[in-house]
Amino acid sequence: MYPNVPNLHHKDSRNFFLIAGTCVVESEDITYKTAHTLQQITNRLGFSFIFKASYRKANRTRIDSYTGMGDERALGILSSVGKELKLPLLTDIHESHEAAIAAEYVDILQIPAFLCRQTDLLVAAAKTHKVVNIKKGQFLSPEAMKFAMQKVIDAGNNKVMLTERGTSLGYGDLVVDYRSIPIMKAFGHPVIMDITHSVQQPNQTSGVTGGRPDLIATIAKAAIATGADGIFLETHPNPAEALSDGANMIPLHQVEELLRDLIKIRHAILKPQS
């Protein structure tokens, strides 16, 4: 099951689709390099690929954390890269008034997990008639995501995707309940596994979110085995220098090896075509 967006190739490959990119737009050079490298990898392997980057990070632990270079400039870079490489684009929004603005630049609007129950935000995203990807709140059951999804549908937009990104385990960790994938797939829309935010360790005493990137591949393999339609990941040429979420990214040079491993699992569970 694939999202209905322009420039989405390889939909006949029977692979899962990939949403990947940097956490936030940092510069034109890093954005282009990351998108182009991922495009080359996915074309080689036959993956449908959507490039993602946030134009602004509104939800940060500390006020001195990097939030962005300015909305118009960041959206302009994102749009330029998408047009040059002919890629579908995803970005997230945090307030209702952002929906119409961001929709002029991208193909998919993403609702962050912390905001997945915000009715005004969901309705505003729906009214753009773009695909809306809703991340499951760390505090919600998969069954409860039906109501978030229904808000978008009831606002006149049936183009919805749902993303699992882990559930709070105490104050400083996340755990993934893989039952959520078949539960949410039963709603009839694409279900994605966010394999990098799922290894986050929030609420650290330093005020900077930690993570377990060594477990990214484990999370990803289990997600494909349980039937995820897509994989969401954040990457960077050098995660140690990333301006946001570097502690839970996969380095760009490791993405192809991971995808090759996931293809093997995907093909093992696919039913033969009649």
Counting DSSP H or I runs of 4 or more residues, the number of helices is 8
Largest sheet: 8 strands, parallel, barrel
Quote the distance from N terminus to C terminus: 18 Å
Give the SSE order as H and E letters. EHEHEHEHEHEEEHEEEHEEH
Query: By helix and strand content, what is the structural category?
Result: alpha/beta
Percentage of residues assigned to helices: 25-40%
**How many domains is the backbone divided into?**
1
What would you say this structure looks like, in words?
The chain has 274 residues and is α/β, with parallel strands linked by helices. The protein has one domain: Aldolase class I (TIM Barrel), CATH 3.20.20.70. 32% of the residues lie in helices and 18% in strands. It has eight helices and 13 strands. The radius of gyration is 17 Å and the shape is globular. The relative contact order is 0.15.
Descriptive terms for the model:
single chain, about 270 residues, alpha/beta, TIM Barrel, 8-stranded parallel beta barrel, two-stranded antiparallel sheet, 8 helices, 13 strands, about 30% helix
